[in-house]
Amino acid sequence: MKIKSITPELLQELLSVAEALRIFLYMLTHSSHPENAQDIVRFKNHIKQINKPLSEKYPTTEIQKLLEPFETLANDNEFWKYTSDGLGFLGSALRFDVVHLQMPFEELVIVSDRFHTKPLRHFLQSADHYQVLALSVNAIQLFEGNRHSLLEIKLPDDFSKTIKELLGEELTDKHSTVASYDEVGGESTNLHHRHGGKIDEVDSDTERFFRVITAAVSDQYSKQGSLSLLLASLPEHRNLFYRVNKNPFVSHKRIEINHQSVSIEKFAHLSWEAMQLAYNEKLETLVTKFNQVKSDGSSSGNLDEMIDETEAGKVDTILVEAHGVIAKKQKDKMTDRFERTDSTLPVLDDQLDIINELVYKIGGSVVIEPIEQMPSQTGLAAILSY
Questions:
Q1: What are the residues whose beta carbons fall under 8 Å from the beta carbon of 272, sequence distance 6 or more?
Q2: pLDDT at 337 over 70
Q3: pLDDT band at residue 71 under the 50/70/90 scheme
Q4: Residues of the chain with CATH 3.30.960
Q5: Which CATH superfamily is domain 128-282 in?
Q6: Taking a C-beta distance cutoff of 8 angstroms, is the pair 171, 206 a contact?
Q7: Are 350 and 320 in contact (CB under 8 A)?
Q8: N or C: the chain end with fewer CB closer than 10 Å?
Q9: 250 versus 168: which is more confidently predicted?
Q10: Are the C-beta atoms of residues 55 and 96 closer than 8 Å to each other?
Q11: How far apart are CA 295 and CA 300, in angstroms?
């Protein structure tokens, strides 16, 4: 059985599945012996637990068909020898997927008429794919990364990767000599305070190079993937780049370093640090906005209200608690409120996941967050569009 990586395409496939009944099992697994020897035992115990809520609601033949791929995998000893750290098992009558969960999560078993995608969406959000433009006065490199890795993108042959490739014979004589302040060690001499002559011509070449590069990256990469773009450069190149930049995906966060002066591991770490700062600022802005508009009724943390508002297309952004689970059967008759359920047992649906999927389908923004970063105690916080 092939273990899949979580991608936006896989998430979209799961959301489009039409079968009426589905099982989601997210469990901690291990990549090495002897820990992984217990994974198969725990997996079989989860399957046994699923039988009870299913038998109360569905016919035996339907249950058998649904559990068949799970039981087959439970008897596949080779599979359990080579698992990764954390797996998600998603099954319906016509589809069965195993996905690698590369982040901390809580074990969860849910039986529902929809795929429980909140952990997958949380992973994609935390992975937070982004790109990095490593820029010097003479050449550029482009990288794509996430929390876990940073890899160079191989640019096509017709992409001007150096100022010489771009300008050719139009390049000012001895440009590379005059512009030698862009050194690997990061030491530099700021030449922009000098006026006239060769230095101005060199600066003009550099501006032209930066202008073409930012437009090309925008058209060929940023617009295609809608990913944030970090700038990695020495400080003296920053202002010129931002002055000519027209790429709306360029982040205000940046890495002020010549990336060739550090290891790729250090460069990846610095890149993720910058992205995390940008993400945290975005979250703080959303939380502040939620609290600001609460008084005029433009935000809400009430689950009943949010189902109605979402179905009416009135939710702009919703923050959803990452590990919270609220089952409809747990609605308190005295307070008419949904109550949290024990997520260590099989659950028949999760209202928070339903609302997150509804908002996603109407084109709203969904942000999955740990409970300590939520601005409400109900498991969700929505900002309305009116």
A1: 145, 146, 147, 150
A2: no
A3: very high
A4: 3-126
A5: eRF1 domain 2 (3.30.420.60)
A6: no
A7: no
A8: C
A9: 250
A10: no
A11: 10
Mean pLDDT to the nearest integer, 52-57: 78
Tokens for 143? Answer: 């990288």
- Please name the helix (run of DSSP H) or strand (run of DSSP E) that holds residue 236, with its range, or none: helix 235-244
| DSSP secondary structure string for all residues of 283-348 | HHHHHHHHHHHTTTTSEE--HHHHHHHHHTT-EEEEEEESS--B-GGG-BTTTTB--B--TTS-EE
* Domain 294-384, CATH: 3.30.1330
Q: Please, is 145 exposed, middle or buried when counting C-beta atoms within 10 Å of its C-beta (0-12, 13-18, 19+)?
A: buried
Which regions of the chain carry the CATH code 3.30.1330? 294-384
Q: What is the DSSP letter of 174?
A: T
Between the alpha carbon of residue 367 and those of residues 27, 121, 360, the distances in Å are: 23, 9, 10
**Residue 326, strand partner residues:** 340
Average pLDDT over residues 231-257: 91
Region 15-26: what's the mean pLDDT? Answer: 79
Mean pLDDT value across the chain:
80
Query: 191: burial class by Cβ within 10 Å (0-12, 13-18, 19+)?
Result: middle
3-state helix, strand, coil in the chain (%, to 5): 45, 20, 35
Token pair for 238: 């920053």
Centre a 10 Å sphere on the Cβ of residue 140 and count the other Cβ atoms it contains.
Answer: 22
Q: Look at the domain 3-126 and name its fold.
A: 3.30.960
Residue type for position 103? M
